[in-house]
């Protein structure tokens, strides 16, 4: 069996941009990471509406999207609190929520732990591990901004889904790759998803 480079939890919520989460997980699996995946109900709806996926058989969707690579994806139902990631005693390197809805952001900021995704984020924060949140909303109201500031003060990294254009993107995939690459940067993971400023194009 392949030795994993690390263990990460990925949360995908109902914010627009589910493709960001899909591409991130695919890259992690390709790089031999073990991924614990949690998708909210609204996240599955985004898969249907934006990615045009038939989500009737969710297990098949997970296999179809993430079966290629040397890592492994372990999918957890949204309210399965027996999952290892629900406990601080489980050792993992960190968590990223991409994209993160304002509802999930609020739940984490206020310690609601209303589902496995929020509970895992709470665990990551209390254990002092890396939490990266990729919010996808516009415009932002004061509540959104205050929740982001609160989480930032707790040690979370807030990385909005804002693609850069200095790499001269030609396709939608280029824009997605930029955001996913920046997210990987925050997790300390090497990649070649975009051309960095100052590099040869």
Provide a descriptive summary of the structure in words.
It is a single chain. A six-stranded parallel sheet has the order 3-2-1-4-5-6, sandwiched between helices. The model has no long low-confidence stretch (mean pLDDT 95). α1 crosses α7 and α4 packs across α6. It is globular and about 45 Å long. The protein is 39% helix and 16% strand. The protein contains seven helices and six strands.
Helix content: 25-40%
Number of domains: 1
Instruction: Please count the helical segments.
Output: 7
CATH topology: Rossmann fold
Q: Termini separation (Å)?
A: 37 Å
Give the averaged pLDDT, no decimals.
Answer: 95
CATH superfamily: Flavin prenyltransferase-like
The CATH class: Alpha Beta
SSE order, one letter for each helix or strand? EHEHHEEHHEHEH
Residue runs with pLDDT of under 50 for 5 or more positions: none
Gross morphology: globular
Radius of gyration: 16 Å
Q: Note the beta-strand portion.
A: 15-25%
| Helix/sheet category | alpha/beta
- Sequence of strands across the biggest β-sheet: 3-2-1-4-5-6
What's the total number of strands? 6
CATH architecture: 3-Layer(aba) Sandwich
Largest sheet: 6 strands, parallel
What descriptors fit this protein?
201 residues, alpha/beta, Rossmann fold, globular
In short:
By secondary structure, this protein is an alpha/beta fold. The chain has helices at 18-30, 41-50, 58-66, 102-109, 116-126, 142-153, 172-186, and strands at residues 7-12, 34-39, 72-76, 94-100, 130-135, 157-158. 39% of the residues lie in helices and 16% in strands.
């Amino acid at each position: 069996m392949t030795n994993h480079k690390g263990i990460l939890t990925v949360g995908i919520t109902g914010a627009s941009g589910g493709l960001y989460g899909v591409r991130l997980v695919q890259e992690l699996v390709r790089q031999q990471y073990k991924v614990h995946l949690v998708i909210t109900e609204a996240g599955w709806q985004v898969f249907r509406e934006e990615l045009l996926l038939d989500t009737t058989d969710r297990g098949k969707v997970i296999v179809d999207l993430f079966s290629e690579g040397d890592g492994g994806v372990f999918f957890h139902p949204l309210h399965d609190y027996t999952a290892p990631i629900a406990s601080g005693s489980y050792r993992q390197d960190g968590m990223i929520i991409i994209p993160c809805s304002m509802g999930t952001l609020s739940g984490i900021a206020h310690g609601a732990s209303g589902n496995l995704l929020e509970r895992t984020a709470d665990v990551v924060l209390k254990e002092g591990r890396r939490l990266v949140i990729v919010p996808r909303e516009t415009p932002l109201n004061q509540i959104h901004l205050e929740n982001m500031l609160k989480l930032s003060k707790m040690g979370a990294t807030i990385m909005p889904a804002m693609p850069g254009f200095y790499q001269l993107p030609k396709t939608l995939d280029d824009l997605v790759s930029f955001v996913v690459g920046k997210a990987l940067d925050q997790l300390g993971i090497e990649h070649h998803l975009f051309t960095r400023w100052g590099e040869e194009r």
